[in-house]
Amino acid sequence: MPFINIKVLKGTLSAEEKQEMILRVTEAVAEIEARPSPKEKILPHSWCVIEEVDFENWGIGGNAVTPEMLKAILEG
Amino acid sequence: MPFINIKVLKGTLSAEEKQEMILRVTEAVAEIEARPSPKEKILPHSWCVIEEVDFENWGIGGNAVTPEMLKAILEG
Amino acid sequence: MPFINIKVLKGTLSAEEKQEMILRVTEAVAEIEARPSPKEKILPHSWCVIEEVDFENWGIGGNAVTPEMLKAILEG
Amino acid sequence: MPFINIKVLKGTLSAEEKQEMILRVTEAVAEIEARPSPKEKILPHSWCVIEEVDFENWGIGGNAVTPEMLKAILEG
Amino acid sequence: MPFINIKVLKGTLSAEEKQEMILRVTEAVAEIEARPSPKEKILPHSWCVIEEVDFENWGIGGNAVTPEMLKAILEG
Amino acid sequence: MPFINIKVLKGTLSAEEKQEMILRVTEAVAEIEARPSPKEKILPHSWCVIEEVDFENWGIGGNAVTPEMLKAILEG
Fold first, then answer.
1. Are the CB atoms for E51 and E6 separated by under 8 Å?
2. What does the pLDDT average to over B12-40?
3. How far is F39 from chain E (nearest CA, A)?
4. Which fold does the domain C3-75 belong to in CATH?
5. How far apart are CA E36 and CA A74, in angstroms?
6. Is the ipTM of this complex over 0.90?
7. Does an interface of 3+ CB pairs under 8 Å exist between D and E?
8. Which one of B53, B73, C6, E72 has the fewest beta carbons within 10 angstroms of its own beta carbon?
C-alpha cells in the first residue's frame, strides 16, 4: 500500500516521461515492499501522484528557481 | 484543529460536489474529534483542502489512470 | 481513487475513533466521487491516512497548541 | 535540510510577494536549524514550495472560503 | 529539484531496505528529470523522504489495514 | 488561511526552537498574506505544522542523511 508523491518543476516532463517515472518508481517501491513475495503482489496496491510546481513557487536557498538556474545545473 | 487533505482526479467533481464533500467530511471529522462536546466546538477550527490531480499524473499499479479505467471501475 | 489525509492532534483519538473516522470519511468521499454509481464501486479504491501530530508541533496563530487551549475550545 | 510547504489561497500573492515569502520563511527556518552555526550553512539545503489553492477547494468549518469571507477577515 | 515522499506501512521495511528504496527511486527520478543530461546533474538536488504510517492509521476502503490483510495480499 | 508544513530532521530542534520557528514563520507568512491589512488579521487563521523525520528516512542524492553529513554541512 505504498503512496508515492513526486513534486517536480512544471514543464520539465513530457506525458511519456511522467508515465515512465510512475512506472519505474512504483515498480522499485513495490519490489522492495513485497519481498520476499514478487512485486506483482503489491503493485496493484501502489499509487504514485506527480505534482507539477511552477518555477516561481519553488524556492531553493530562499530564491525561486529560474529556468536559467535549472539550465546551469543540467549543463554545469 | 484537524486538517483534511483530499486528492481526487481532476474533472470528476462539480463545484457543488466539492462543497458537499468539504461539508460532510469536515462535519464527520469534527464530530469525532469534539466528543463528548458537540461538533460545533471544533468545526470552526477544522480545515479541508481538495487537490485535483490530472489523470496523467495519478498512477495506480505503475500506470497513469485513464478516463476509460475510471469508467470501467464505476460501471464494472 | 481518492486519497484522504487527516492530520489530528496526537492523543485525541482512540483506535476505535480512528477506525470510525476512516470509515465515515472514506464513505462520504466515495459516495460523492462514484455518483451516479453506488459508492461501493469507488470504496475499494479509496485510501485514508491519519497523521497524529504532537501538540508542540502544531501552531495556530504562531503559538503551539496546548492541551489547555484545546480544552478551552471544547468547553468554551 | 528543511522542506517547507506553504498552502495559500490562489490569487492572493503577486510573484514578488511569493519571492519575499520564500526568502523570509526560508531564512527564518535556516537560521534556527543552523544554530549555533550561521544560517548560510543550511540555507542552500533549504527548500520552500508554495501551493496555490482555489477558493472553492479550501473549506473552513465545512464551507468553501469565498473572496467575501477573506475580505471580511482582512477588513473586520 | 524533485522532492519524493513515500508513505509505507510502519514496520515493513528494514533500514537497509529504506536506504535501497531511497537510492533506486531517487536515481530513477533524477535520470528522467535530467535528460538528456546525465542523472548525476540532478541527483544532488533530489530529495526523498519516507514516512512510516501505523497500520491502524491507514485505511483502505474504509477499514484500517491489518497485518493479516497485508499477509493475505502478499501470499494471496 | 495559510497552512505551513515544515519537515525537519528529528532531534535537531528543541521545544523552544520549534515554538520560535512556528512564531517567526507564521508571522512572516501572515504579514505578507494580510497586506495592506495588518498581519493580526490573518494570524489567527494561519497554521503551521512541524514534522520531524528520522535521519534514515531522509535521502539526499539517493543516500540517507547521517548525523555526520549534517555536522559536515554545519561546520564545513
1. yes
2. 98
3. 31
4. Macrophage Migration Inhibitory Factor (3.30.429)
5. 9
6. yes
7. yes
8. E72
